[in-house]
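Not sure how to ask, but would you mind making up any protein sequence you like and the tokens describing how it folds?
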Amino acid sequence: EHGPYQPHEPGYGLYQPGYSPYDDQIPDPRSRMLAIQNAKAYLLKSSTTSGLNLYDHLANMLTKILDEQPTNAVDIIENISKDVKWAQFQKKTDTLRDEHEILPTFEAAEKRKALFLKANGEGDEELEDEIGETPLPNVMETAFYFEQAGIGLSKDESYHIFLALKKLISVQPIQTCRFWGKILGLEMNYIIAEVQYHEGEEEEETEEEEVIEEGGKGMGEVEDEDEKKEKEEEPPKSTYKPPPVIPKEENGTGANKYVYFVCNEPGKPWVKLPPVTPAQIVCARKIKKFFTGRLDAPVVSFPPFPGNEANYLRAQIARISAGTQISPIGFYQFAEEEGDEEEEGGGGRDTYEENPDFQPLSVAEMVGSLSTWVHHGQSILNQGRCVWFNPFQKSEEEEEEDEEEDKAEEPDELQQEIGPPLLTPLSEDEGIQNIPAWTAQPSTNLIPQYAVAILQSNRWPGAYAFASGKKFDNIYFGWGHKYSPENHIPALPPPVQAEYPSGPEIAETRDPTLEEELAFKAAREEALAAAEEEEDEEDVVEDDEEEEDD
């Protein structure tokens, strides 16, 4: 036991009232309270980052420790501090109504829910489709073959596309349908379906467009009579004639042979792309733009693209299809009736049919030589069309109207463009510097007897084709851009026009001086005075002659 503390010991005077070991440091109670308030104010200072203050944080930590009383609290003090901070930012639950967060998977399931619903009476139609032919392609079978080479989408997405194509066929009068591929975008992607309408269905749409155009012309004829009078008083106009516009190919032919529908995700509505024009294809070759996923987005480029992203997407689809739609040699053949018509058009045959006597080659032969594959899609000429069009060729009525014009103004005759004919072997495709146009390989080297022949386009990265027996197909997964060994360089704007040559006939005259103006006025007054004198003399002479006559 310890006796009373001595004055020299540290514990002396602790139990005496009004005594503190810090009395010698802060003897004044007012100063002591001021120091405590300053310390508390410092601890209550809020953080500029989290908005918390140390005083409340320490109080919450001590409360949590005293309530839970964990073992070895000093060892887990850092974790307790993190837990207290984390509790400040947790969402407080409402006791009246629970708030459920909508997960992205739930939103995606809601969008695709309509794909799994059957319409009334659809079960009976399915039985009829099994008996007859259906335009619905077997997307899952095609995905299986491409999956052998590690190409394609996930099984879930492939099946959703399968159901989306089924919905498209049930709404549109489609004769043939094919899953063309998927073009990637910066914001959203494009899932593309290639279809052909039944005969007569597409023509109705074109007839409606022509009726609208004719109606517009009829309304304009009434206004032309009123405008003729105004034009007579107008100053002369420029005689410049812009180059003739190359018309687009008719629906069902050339670059517009197929109709394309796109959607961003399976379950969203399908949107029909407009027909492509030669001007859009020619301009698409000169630019390189990433897709956004919005069909109405503008295409800002140089040269200016004539249309929005829907037109640019359609032009890229036409270019990719023309260069990558291939099939095993012998699968397609020309019809016998077109044998005599080959030389008439100048561009070769443009139709083909399936060969009923086709005998498939082995996978080793399909992979060993590119001459065993052929293009069954028409190539696009530099003009932007598959079949060349002479813009200066006039009809008989136009020739009679233009007989009076000078022959010197007639343009020179253009040389007709002729592209490679249909069913041209891939071995004739030009390479890209030292890179071949195509790469052929089997899907596996470990089990060659069950391998699938796979072809990959090096000119259009993302274009693939497979062949297994009598089955083959083409597909595209990529950004929609053509490969170029060098970086893309946009076309430069045309040079600035030269100034008009300056000469004395267009030079501005200098302003006259004061002396010159006075001299000019004096000369003009003298001339007027002389003219008046002459008039007076003539009047006098006339008066004299009249008097003599009298």
Summary: The two ends are 176 Å apart (CA to CA). The chain has 14 helices and 13 strands. Confidence is low (pLDDT under 50) at residues 206-222, 338-347.
